Amino acid sequence: MNGKSIRRLEGAQMPLEDWMMLSLITMICWGIWGFLLKLASKHMSWHQIYVSASLATFTAVIGLLVYFKQPPNPSNPGFILATSAGAMGVTGAMLLYIALGRGKASIIVPVTALYPVITALLSFFILQEKLSVAQALGVFLAILSLVLISTG
After folding, report:
1. Distance CA 53, CA 37 (A)
2. Which segments within the chain are labelled E, that is strand?
């Protein structure tokens, strides 16, 4: 895989410019995801929602294992990092489901969607990644939006 393309499941190459389309589709999927979770919270407990939503994840995992025929190697250094990331995702998902059962999706989902600020700050301070002035301003505005969303 080179820096100008990403690999699709069927092995075809996609130009880097298509990352924006993939990002927009992801945004739409996650927007509908948050909305559907709020609707589900009116009929199910958070743990029932988690189990039900996890069925789709489990199906995807099985599909990926069958398609790629290459399970992860637990001795790979990335394995612990990936499973730790999974544990953070699971914890965040459960807390999101509980929050949606108690509050407004119009506030909760935008607040939780600001998680990239944490990634940006950790990457800046720990990985020493550089932020341009515009990117730093974007992080600042995201934090400001958190204040505005949560105090309205």
Report:
1. 9
2. 5-7, 13-15
Alpha-carbon distance of 103 to 101, in angstroms, equals 6
Instruction: Break the chain into its structural domains and give their ranges.
Output: 5-113
Tokens, residue 110: 């935008």
The residue behind tokens 């199906």 is: 59
Q: Helix, strand, or coil here: 47?
A: helix
DSSP per-residue letters across 2-44: -TTEEE-TTS-EEEGGGHHHHHHHHHHHHHHHHHHHHHHHTTS
Torsion-angle region of residue 69: left (phi > 0), alpha (psi -120 to 50) or beta?
left
- 33 vs 53: CA distance, rounded Å: 10
Q: Distance between CA 140 and CA 146 in Å, rounded?
A: 10
Dihedral-angle region of residue 132 (phi above 0 means left; psi in -120 to 50 means alpha; beta otherwise): beta
What tens digit of pLDDT does each residue of 84-116 get?
999 999 999 999 999 999 999 999 999 999 999
